[in-house]
Every structure is written in structure tokens, then in C-alpha cells.
Amino acid sequence: MESPAGKLFYFSSFAVGSYIVKTLLEQHGTLPLDFFYSTIEVQSQDDAYQYLLYWLTKNQFNENKNRLRASTSLASGRNYWSDSDSDGGECDDLLDTENNADTEWKASLANTRQLIWSPSEGTHYFKYRGRYLGLTREVEERAAMSYSRTEKLRISCLGWDASVLKQLLLEARVEYSQKEKGKTVIYRAGKRPYDNEFYWARSTSRPARALSTVILDHEQKHAFLQDVQQYLHPSTMKWYSDRGIPYRRGYLFHGPPGTGKSSLAFAAAGFLGLNTYILNLNAHQLNEDSLAELFQELPRRCLVLLEDIDTNEMTSRRGGNKKKGKGNNRLSLSALLNTIDGVAAQEGRVLIMTTNHPEDLDPALVRPGRVDYQIEFKLANRDLTLQMFQNLFRDALPSIRSNYQDNEPDATSRTQSEKTDLVLPVSHHEMCRDNQQGSPVVDMKQLAVTFADKIPIDTFSPAEIQGYLLCHRESPVDAVEEAEAWVQKTLDERKQRELDAAKEAEADLEKEKRRKRRKSKKNQKKVDGKDDDGQGDTSEMSSSESGSDGDSDQDKKPNGAC
């Protein structure tokens, strides 16, 4: 173990060397720094910044250091992803969460977030693999009118060999990858605060969603996953290249809202281990150059998600009704098509577009070669409703049992027929509120069948049914009992919304008619006014002309005439 005196000597030498190099740098430029130091710089917009900072907070900088930054996220500024949003509170806190579990639970209810200890601004020194390294955290100047800021980290060591720095970054990347194992990382197109350029900003990471939780026809789901897996297989890229086929694959998910289009995309990304990149074509100031740059920055293996593609007027069917106010005039359909499958288009990625109205899309956007596979999502039928009920209550016992028969005075004297009646389907006896209040023995499979029978087919989206079931997640019996009332109430509300929408549309139409009538009258008045002015001028002109003629006649009369 190294003595304190040895450590002091090493740090003193390092500090003196740093001062000498700084002085030489100020006087002679960058050559002395290159000569004495090996340095690696990492910008905060890069994923490597997250790797390194996460590694430092876990291995070097914690509450035992003396110069720390306390925050609830790893990075500064609102444009950067917060590690604490998705790691379940992994980062250290002064609270001993193991000994204060109740306090931690209450804190989470209060919507508080754990503190993360990271190195403060300035230069720090630490030891790694027997060598002392320097770490400088530097905050760059804020852009004008910007609420965010950018940072950079520099790690350095004495000497010409930077291998130890590369090893550190590699270790940080591996450790971070282990932390992200089983999660889906989501990126969104954002704007850098200092130059207003678009880039892929890390949004969050979430646990990979199980494919079994996506309620979709089994054959459809299996065929889609098989197609994607085959496309991503290492041998497929060579197969495409040998035959001169662009190595790209596009999918279109279409159907009513709430039918699981985005859910399947996220579940597939988690299943295949792909990062997800979400792009909104209606983003403010997104132009053709920005779109092309975003696609060029995509990694080879990733999933690109364009949600609600029909809401942008440029993708609408040419000659059809355009949706005013929702389009981005800086983008054209040809620019989007060239970005997706043009000569310079990125290869190796999986493109998924979702829409509620496929009939409104321009045929050029969904032609084969751009969209290779389409999946239609429908409203819930009986089988889907049955699957949803079984999936939501899959952790429940095969039957819901109660102790009420043991509490009955004559429980031991019940006949065999009475005991058998307790396990009959739920429709054969009166259901109680929940297990705690005491309820008959209920077969969960039969309960699911009963629930599915009460939900009309092709009427509700899976999201609507799931929302209802979540309200009764503690009592599947209540979910079945109150299903009919919920169906009727929802249909009545839907009908009322349709009536209100029709009235509003009628009022808007009448308002538009009145506006047109007023405009027509106003234009007519202008025309009439011009006609009146023209006639007045004509009469005056006639009078003037006749007057001048009269004067001429009088002038022609002989003198002395009566």
C-alpha cells in the first residue's frame, strides 16, 4: 500500500508539472501540451460523456470526495438525458436506502429524486490501474438567449501513451452497457442550444417490454418478428449487397388510435436489442438539410419510428384534402422520400411508420421498396379481449378463494352438491366485491370468458379496455360485474361526443356561411358604389357638355334678338 508521503509527492509533482505545462502552453502554443500530456476530450452531446460520467460517479467520485456537484441528473441543461429517470435510483445518496426503506418509499411518493454526486467544475486527480490521471470538467459559454449549457470532460495522463485513457473509456462503456442491459434506449430529435442544429438527444431508457404484453393476433406478431430478425441477421446484409439491393427495410403500422401500433414498435426494439430513434416531422424549424443530417447520424443497427405520419400535410395524398396548420412548410415529400431510400440514404436501420389513416397517405410514400411490410391493427375482438384479461390478471391464482365457508356455523355440514356449487362458473352464484370481503371460489379462466362475452366486438380499442381493467386491477370479479355498465356508459359518452362534434361542425359551417354572405354583401356594395360614382360622373359630364353647347348656340344668335 502506498504511503501518504508517496501520494503527496506524486500529487505535488503532478501539480508542478501541470503548472509548467500550462505556462509553456500560454507562451508557445499547443506543442508543449502534446509533448508532455496525453489527453482525451469528450463532449456532453456524445454518448461517451454519459459513459464516463456514470463510471466516475460509481467508482471515483462519491460522498467521500471533497469537491462534488450535487444534482438529480448526470448532465447539465434541459437537453440532456437524466440517468436517474430510468435507473430506479441506482446512484448513491446520503440516505441509507437499505436501512430506511420506508423513508425511501415515502420520498418517492413525494415525487423527489435521489441525489447524484459527480465531480464539480475544475480539475480533479484520481488513481486508475496504478496511474494517476487528471480529470477536468469544463462548462462552455452559454449561447445567447439559451436556457441550457454544454460541457466537456477531459481526462489526461503524463506521458505519450494514451492507452490507459482508452482502457478507462472502454471500461466505462462496458459498465454502462451492463447497466443498460435489458433496457430500450430512446432518442428524440432535438436542437443543440449553442447552434440551433438538430441532433439525436437521448431521452430516456426503459425496461424492455415483453412481447407477450402486446395484444395482437399471434400469427401477425410472429410473422413480423420473423421478418425483422431475418433482415437483421448478419448474413442478410451480404445477401442484399451481392444482389445490388439496398439494405433497408420499412414497415407501416396502421389502424385506429389505441390499438397498439407504438407498443409493438417498442416491444420489438426491446426484443431485438435495438435503440429507438423517434422523429416528429412537424418539429419546428426542421428542414430538408436537418432531416438528411439526422438520418446520416443514425447507427447501422437501430429502429427509427415516425409516428402519426398522416398528420403532416406533405405526406397526404396529392390532390386530396390537405390538413391546414399541421404541416411543415420547410419539408417536401420528395426530400423525405430521398432521405428514406435515396442514393445517399442510410442502410441497416429498421424504419417503422404509424398512421391512423392509411388511405390519406401519398402512394409514393408507401410503395413497395419504401414500405415492405404492412400490419393492420384493429379494434378488439373477443380473442383479444380474452387475452387482455388473462394477461392483466396472470399473477392471480387460478381461482379466487375465500374463507367465508369456513366461517359459516354449518360449514362442515354442507352437502357435496353445495360444495360443488362453490366452484361453478361465476354466473351461477352471486359474486361478492373482493377476496377480502369474502367471495365464492371463482375460476379465473371462466371469469375471463365471461368478461370477453360482455364486451362487444370491434367496438373498443385495446387501450380503452386496458384502461377499464386497470381501474379494477385488484378485483377481477368487480371488472366482470361492472363491465356491462361501463360499456353502456362509454357508448353513451361516445355518442354524446359525436353529437357535440356534429353541432360544433354545423355551427362552424353556419358561421362560415354568414362570413361569406357578409363578404359578398361588402363586395357588392363596393361594386354598386363604383357604378353610382360612374353614373354621377357621366351626368355631370353630359350637363357640362350640354351647357357648353348652349353657350355656343347663344353666341351664334344675332344681336338684339328676343
UniProtKB/TrEMBL annotation:
Ranges where the record places region Disordered: 400-420, 498-562
Comp. bias intervals (Polar residues): 400-415
Residue intervals of the BCS1 N-terminal domain: 12-214
Domain AAA+ ATPase: 247-381
Localization per Swiss-Prot or TrEMBL: Mitochondrion inner membrane
Coiled coil location: none
Reaction(s) catalysed by this chain's protein: ATP + H2O = ADP + phosphate + H(+)
Superkingdom of origin organism: Eukaryota
Residue ranges with Basic and acidic residues bias: 498-512, 553-562
Family in the record: Belongs to the AAA ATPase family. BCS1 subfamily.
Topology relative to the membrane: Single-pass membrane protein
GO molecular function, one term: ATP hydrolysis activity
Compositional bias (Low complexity): 536-549
Protein name: BCS1 N terminal-domain-containing protein
Keyword Mitochondrion attached: yes
